[in-house]
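Progress against Task 2.4 (sequence-to-structure conversion) is shown through the following example record, which the project officer requested during the mid-term review.
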Amino acid sequence: MRTWSCLLPLACAACLSLQTMAQPALTETTGESALGNSNSLLYALAWKQTSAEYRALYHQGFNIARLHVENALQRRTGSKPLAVITDVDDTVLHVLSYWGHLVNTNRDFFDDSVWDEWIAEDLVTAAPGALEFFKFCADNKVDVFYVTSRDQGEATLDIALSNLRSIGLPQIHEQNVTVLRESSNKEIRQDEIMQTHEVVVMLGDNLNDFRRKYYIRGDVDARIAAMEEDSHLFGIKYVMFPNPTDGHWLAAIFGESEPPASAANREILRVAAARSAWTRLSRP
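Structure tokens generated for the chain above:
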């Protein structure tokens, strides 16, 4: 089970515009379906799987984070050690083969049972630029705290530690890795870290990776407005990575971040994708 944190409106907009061209069949109501080429994940996943732009955005994000860390190292005067707080999935770790499996098995919504089986196999890969950035932090004695929301039962922490170690990340110890099984509210742990460290920057693919105020269900406009209130923090205190396939941007649309596969939910997604749409006037 993946417990979710809140995602970026940019990713939301990108995903919705991509999905406008893929209108799933509405005959199936639950579970796997014969979606074929109508799977609503296709455009977003083709982008994640193949585009250089997707990878460039990760390099860009980690380059920005490094600039802030370098500046903090040069000007540090306080007694607190420097730190970076980061999300894990789709920020540090890429999970592309999980999504590819969903497409190959005709699934078009997040599937917890498949996720729990897949994540235990250590098939994650490093996000572009991640290893270089976190090794730079370790070399300069900047503490990195990994905070994620997952639930695979009693094995959850061990699986997360194994995933992070499998790609060669530094500073992977229980005291540096927090796994929230019962909640996606990372703010409590973040505030604890801020008490002992000067947090230079926070990294995530979801607005909820930064603060809980963005956890807004069933109201797209309110969630966008909450982000706009803090627009000056993005690229400065918060570094956002793209994710057009999953996260709490879905909760703003559906009221939950992992809506089940159904004809009704495919129609809700189609309507969201056409939220802004040109109506062509017929000519005489």
